[in-house]
Design goal:
The protein is about 40% helix and about 30% strand. By secondary structure, the chain is α+β, with helices and mostly antiparallel strands. The radius of gyration is 23 Å and the shape is elongated.
Amino acid sequence: MDSYVEQIVAHKKTSRDLIISIVMILSVLGIVAIGFLFGILINFYFVIVGFFLAAFDIYFCWYVITGRNVEYEYTVTNNNLQIDKIMAKRRRKEILSIDINRIEGMDTVEENRLSDAKCNKVMHLGTDISDTSQHRFIVLTNKYGRIMVIFAPNEKIMNSLKMYLKPEVKIEMLKSRKK
């Protein structure tokens, strides 16, 4: 019997996103101000050019600011976990696609049993870096080597993952919950 479960998780905005939004808005105001300044000092046509440049900059700012809206889609199909990054509902990029039985260890961020010392890369593919209710796992991939993935699955995704995990990983998860 085939199984298919998916979930979309919205990534929370950070202070970096706020700073980018403020800089984008200030760039529009700066272009309009420079257009007026050159219009007064040199020629009135610079005001018109400033407004045209501001119109293009408004579109560019809208594109960049809405592009900061990131969602992650977790899809479990039989023995395969695929994580896609969806940017502003305009673009989709596959981040990770692995066999679930290749997962070497799994826990929650609160439990903190896994060490990222032997990992080449830590990927935050969940809601927020500071959210301790997220899960994480370590897996060896062909593209990145040994990585730790931090993600925020719901109960359906976790149940689908547990069906295909190696027995020793399941046992380790059960031991940690009993403590």
